[in-house]
């Protein structure tokens, strides 16, 4: 993501390519995408009575939560490296 700068109007939803206008951010950089997936896995786990499946779904939910944190860290790093934000 070093070649991309965050679009300041919508920092969590868009990125700015050099010399271009705002573009949609790939889902891998969108924490909301991963949190929504995690919540869906937790919902499925609540609705199953099979213990092994429940554990697996909760583990997947935890992994999606970790991806959301990584996405947030990527956004934070991009903001910190953006010379426009340092003004």
Describe the structure.
It is a single chain. With 87 residues, the protein is mostly helical. The protein has a domain at 26-81. It is built from 2 helices and 3 strands. The chain has helices spanning 31-46, 51-81, and strands at residues 5-6, 14-16, 22-24. It has a 3-stranded antiparallel β-sheet with strand order 1-2-3. The longest helix is centred in the C-terminal third of the chain and has 31 residues, at 51-81.
Summed up, what is this model?
With 87 residues, the protein is mainly alpha-helical.
Would you spell out the secondary-structure blueprint of this structure?
Layout: E1 5-6, E2 14-16, E3 22-24, H1 31-46, H2 51-81
Antiparallel strand pairs: 1-2, 2-3
Key terms:
mainly alpha; 9% strand; 87 residues; 3 strands
The proportion of strand residues reads 5-15%
What's the overall geometry? rod-shaped
Structural class: mainly alpha
User: How many helical stretches?
Assistant: 2
Helix content: 40-55%
Distance between the termini: 21 Å
Total strand segments: 3
Listing every helix as H and every strand as E from the N terminus to the C terminus, the arrangement reads EEEHH
Largest sheet: 3 strands, antiparallel
């Amino acid at each position: 993501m070093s070649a991309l700068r965050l679009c300041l109007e919508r920092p969590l939803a868009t990125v700015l390519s050099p010399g271009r206008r705002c573009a949609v951010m790939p889902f891998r950089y969108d924490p909301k995408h991963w949190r929504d997936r995690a919540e869906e896995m937790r919902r499925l786990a609540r609705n199953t009575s099979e213990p092994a499946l429940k554990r697996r779904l909760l583990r997947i939910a935890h992994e999606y939560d970790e991806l959301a944190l990584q996405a947030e860290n990527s956004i934070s790093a991009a903001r910190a490296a953006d010379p426009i934000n340092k003004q």
